[in-house]
Design a protein that fits this description.
129 residues; alpha/beta; Rossmann fold; five-stranded mixed β-sheet; 3 helices
Length: 129
C-alpha cells in the first residue's frame, strides 16, 4: 500500500483516540486524510461499517464519496458501489468485508435505524447545529 499523506496530518494516521478533530483551511488535506485513515483501518483490520456524514445528503455524494472512490481507484482496489443507498463495499486484506455509508442529516429519520456502525466521519462539522 503506497498512500500519499499530508505531512501535517501524517502523525495522526496511527492515532487511536476515540475522537479525532482535523482543523485546517480550505485545501489543507483534511478530507483526503480522513478518507485515507478510514481506508487504512478498513484494509488492515476489516469488518468495519463506517457512516460518513455531511449536513446535506447530496453534498456527501459530491464530496466525500468521490474522495473515497478516487482513493480506491488510486490504490487499484475493487469495490462495489450501491448507488441507491450510497454504500461502498470492499474487502480487507484478510478478506473481511467493509462498508462505508454516505449520507446527510437533512433527513435525520433515515439514519436513526442504521445498525452495527464501527465509526463515524463527520465532514464539515462546523455546518452542523
Amino acid at each position: 500500500m503506497n498512500l500519499k499523506l499530508s505531512l501535517s496530518f501524517f502523525p495522526l494516521l496511527e492515532d487511536e483516540h476515540r475522537y479525532l478533530v482535523l482543523a485546517g483551511g480550505k485545501g489543507s488535506g483534511k478530507s483526503e486524510f480522513a478518507a485515507r485513515k478510514l481506508f487504512v483501518r478498513c484494509k488492515n483490520e476489516g469488518g468495519h461499517r463506517f457512516l460518513v456524514l455531511r449536513k446535506v445528503r447530496k453534498t456527501a455524494h459530491q464530496s466525500t464519496l468521490e474522495v473515497f472512490r478516487r482513493l480506491l481507484a488510486e490504490q487499484e482496489i475493487e469495490y462495489t458501489h450501491d448507488k441507491t443507498h450510497q454504500i461502498i463495499s470492499f474487502p480487507a486484506t484478510n478478506g473481511q468485508p467493509n462498508e462505508l455509508l454516505f449520507d446527510g442529516l437533512d433527513e435525520p429519520e433515515k439514519i436513526k435505524s442504521i445498525k452495527a456502525l464501527t465509526g463515524v466521519w463527520i465532514e464539515e462539522a462546523t455546518e452542523f447545529t
